[in-house]
Design brief:
Blueprint lengths: L11 H23 L41 H6 L9 H9 L10 H11 L6 H13 L1 H18 L1 E2 L6 E2 L5 H4 L4 E8 L2 H10 L4 E5 L18 H6 L7 E5 L4 H13 L6 E4 L15 H9 L5
Parallel strand pairs: 3-4, 3-5, 5-6
Antiparallel strand pairs: 1-2
Helix pairs in contact: 4-5
Length: about 300
């Protein structure tokens, strides 16, 4: 791997930090290219420079792949010596061994670090946000951390997926399916449970739901057999059902799924509708894209 030289206008310390960041960025790209295969004591990194891997995928080069770069901890030999034979270590561990002073040191015990790592996996939370959230939980152990841990334990034990509609609840069937006040003639089809919750918050419809568990996607390899479509076809044969509302996202995958569901239910003679597309409430025409304006014109209604 070749490293770009930092600008000469920087001072010596800034040049070192700049070069270290470039090496880390290039190392991350190389790691993503070859996959997270791990490291061992013989070759340090199971990947080798381009052109040195045989047709069978085995490593032919005996020289460690990391030997082309300076090590903050004494070179490749010191790195190999600090990795036990046969042990697979994580990428961050090798970063720490290799770049030493430039990598952040652990500031807490393994239990707290594990809490931070798990929080960082949540949507919308990065490493910094996860550390702040973990610190807030630790500060309020009695009023926040302990009740949250107990609630998560109970949820993990009791939450089930409804076999009728695909909703998540602590009972089978779920609360919505057991609600007799809902209109049995209307069935709202959604892609995910979050969409179901969004419609319930709006209070716009008091019907029954069916969660597909996703949308068709050729790019992601999601096919019809991966979705909750068989039970939807079964529910379409209920005598009281008159209309199916396709509350799917206005994306390519969402509309593809809507067309597939429509074709699958054509034999039942049901009324199949979809959510309106166009100008949102409170929206200004000048800020809308061409696709939204076109859909609004085509879906215009009498005033």
């Amino acid at each position: 791997m070749q490293v770009r030289h930092p600008p000469k206008s920087l001072c010596q310390r800034e040049r070192r930090n700049f070069a270290a960041k470039l090496r880390l960025r290039q190392w991350e790209k190389e790691f993503e290219r070859v996959g997270s295969h791990g490291f061992d004591a013989n070759s340090v990194f199971l990947a080798t420079p381009p052109g040195s891997v045989g047709s069978g995928g085995e490593t032919e080069a005996a020289e460690p792949y990391l030997s082309g770069m300076p090590f903050a901890t004494g070179g490749p030999a010191a790195l190999s010596a600090r990795i036990p034979h046969g042990r697979v270590v994580e990428r961050d561990t090798v970063f720490q061994l290799r770049y030493g002073l430039f990598m952040p040191q652990a500031v807490a015990g393994p239990e707290i670090e594990r809490l931070i790592q798990l929080l960082a996996r949540m949507p919308g939370l990065g490493p910094r946000s996860a550390r702040r959230a973990a610190l807030q939980l630790i500060k309020k152990r009695e009023t926040l951390l302990a009740p949250l841990a107990d609630a998560m334990r109970v949820a993990a034990e009791r939450i089930v997926v409804c076999r009728t509609c695909g909703n998540v609840d602590t009972s089978e069937p779920c609360t919505i399916c057991r609600d007799e006040s809902r209109d049995p003639s209307i069935l709202v089809v959604v892609a995910d449970v979050s969409d179901l919750w969004a419609l319930e918050r709006s209070g716009a419809v008091t019907a029954r739901y069916h969660v597909l568990g996703g949308v068709l996607s050729a790019l992601d390899g999601v096919r019809p057999e991966h979705l909750n479509l068989d039970s939807l076809v079964t529910r379409a044969g209920e005598p009281a059902l008159r209309e199916i509302i396709l509350a799917l996202n206005a994306t390519v995958d969402g509309q593809t799924t809507a067309h597939y569901v429509t074709e699958s239910l054509k034999a039942y003679g049901l009324k199949v509708t979809r959510l309106a597309h166009g100008v949102p409430v409170g929206g200004e025409l000048d800020y809308l894209d061409e696709g939204t304006l076109t859909a609004a014109i085509r879906s215009r209604t009498p005033f």
